[in-house]
Amino acid sequence: MTIRALFWDIGGVLLTNGWDREQRAEVVTRFGLDASAFGERHKLAVPELERGRMVLGEYMAQTVFYTPRDFTPDDFRAAMEAVSQPHLETLALARELGTRHRMYALNNEGRDLNEYRVRTYGLNQFLLGFFTSCYLGVMKPGPAIYRLALDLAHVRPGEAVMIDDRAQNVEAARSVGMQGVLYENAAQLRKALAELGAE
Ligand SMILES: [Mg+2]
């Protein structure tokens, strides 16, 4: 079948993860927070953050600034943003693929960090739309977000490829009929897309 659209995960694919375990551990250590207290609060707040029902300021108020600190919310936000780094080879491949394919983001992220990452790394220069959990109110690996993205992009499942670094998210994409590529690195992705006839 002809491939008509590519759907990209962002964290762990085009960029480093946004606010995953490793990034949280790094920032929590830097600010000398109690990792277990932070972890408990994060677990309760993050689904609301990523579904767009809580902004970053509210998330930080619940997880960090519920008690006096010797640093400010701006300091903490800056540290959260600084751990986002680009995967340069994959970004270059994506820009090249964007000249031949319709391409969209399909990712889980909170609104503030997502906007920072899109703007900082120019992801809107080659992605035509952002089907992101914070805008759609649903998250991967739930099938609803894949179906919504397919409907909004108006593409048949079999003509769409999901590129994601998590096996569970790729499996969920396949469960709604999409093609799936489990991302490892730029070279492997190029080869996998070529095998699907999408290079
Ligand atoms: Mg990912």
From TrEMBL:
Protein's UniProt keywords contain Glycoprotein: no
SUPFAM superfamilies per UniProt: HAD-like
Recorded superkingdom: Bacteria
Record bears the keyword Hydrolase: yes
Keywords: Hydrolase
GO molecular function: hydrolase activity
Name recorded for this polypeptide: Putative hydrolase of the HAD superfamily
